[in-house]
Amino acid sequence: PDNITVQELANRMAVRGAEVVKTLMRSGVMATINQAIDADTAELVVAEFGQKVKRVSDADVEEGIEGIVDQAGDLRPRAPVVTVMGHVDHGKTSLLDALRESNVVKGEAGGITQHIGAYRVDIGHGMPVAFIDTPGHAAFTSMRARGASVTDVVVLVVAADDGVMPQTVEAIRHAKAAGVPIVVAINKMDKPEANPERVKTELLNHEVVVEDYGGEVLAVPVSAVARTGIDKLIEALQLQAELLDLKANPERDAQGTIVEAELDRGRGAVATVLVQNGTLKVGDIVIAGAQWGRVRALVDDRGAPVEQAGPSTPVEILGLDGVPEPGDKLWVVDNEKRARDVAEYRQRKKREQSQLGAAAARGTTLEDMF
Ligand code: GDP
Ligand code: MG
């Protein structure tokens, strides 16, 4: 059953908390303003105040937001979204740097990219490739735990001088659990002691069978420091994307996932969203988790303002009324009222959950209250 704290109920009826406590007391229910009462009790209280009850369910508020179904004829190929994983010190950060700099489509500011949590690499032929700019497994698993799947392909970085290590195995497990294909980057090939054959045989023990061994996993020797093999790695990712037949409908309202977000002193709430379907435009009304807003500006991964962002494009978004959380889904909705309703509803739910959590932490149970 849905529970609500006395304070929240009072807020919703626009009456003082103490009035609700008193009314409850008259009905024989002893509850402080921070305690939760069940929906039936709340309904009685509302009736006592002569107000109408409208029980709103998740479905009522949120239905329709995820409702668009794409027709096959509207779908177009889209860029793959890639997360880099691997053992510590095997070169994840170095590889992400090398990839970013391999971009032939340089920005005006001397090709300096800004760090907005994700970026796209375009090597001039084939599909661009979008990279999530946070290496490591935590981001991947926490996003997935929240039901957000943004990654199409995992680049597994294995140092050629070190071979398969515990976090390599962990990364393989994560990718397999998520059903996401792996492309192996055998890194540090510039080192004299590099031994790519050893890496490939060690991977066999973990059911990662590269092409040389009759498997389907693409493996590319690279050096993040010497900047070799980077284009070959991109090409492997393009090939993998083709095999996956990744598609999206650029013509519809945007849907995406928040990759990172923060409160910026000058600009307010700033969130990096990875657009997954549709096209996000300046002026769109969006909901991101429990926040909403009208898109005031979009900034691409090179710091340039853009009017719109299509599928598999990371973009910074300004204009949200608060800071959403990584993993939150973003949707475009028809009108401000709807956006505000859903955002307020979600905020209320979050507040109630944390209040209920706090009550539970204090050792208060529903039985204690009645
Ligand atoms: P991460 O922990 O996986 O993010 O690894 P880093 O990118 O921080 O790299 C760890 C160390 O390995 C750093 O000292 C890098 O300079 C070095 N390194 C990374 N890639 C290469 C490479 O291709 N060749 C060589 N020789 N060193 C590398
Ligand atoms: Mg690192």
TrEMBL record:
It is found in: Cytoplasm. Residues 77-247 form the Tr-type G domain. It comes from the Bacteria. GTP binds at residues 86-93, 133-137, 187-190. One of the essential components for the initiation of protein synthesis. Protects formylmethionyl-tRNA from spontaneous hydrolysis and promotes its binding to the 30S ribosomal subunits. Also involved in the hydrolysis of GTP during the formation of the 70S ribosomal complex. Belongs to the TRAFAC class translation factor GTPase superfamily. Classic translation factor GTPase family. IF-2 subfamily. This is Translation initiation factor IF-2. It comes from Marinimicrococcus flavescens. The chain holds residues 297 to 666 of 877 of the full protein.
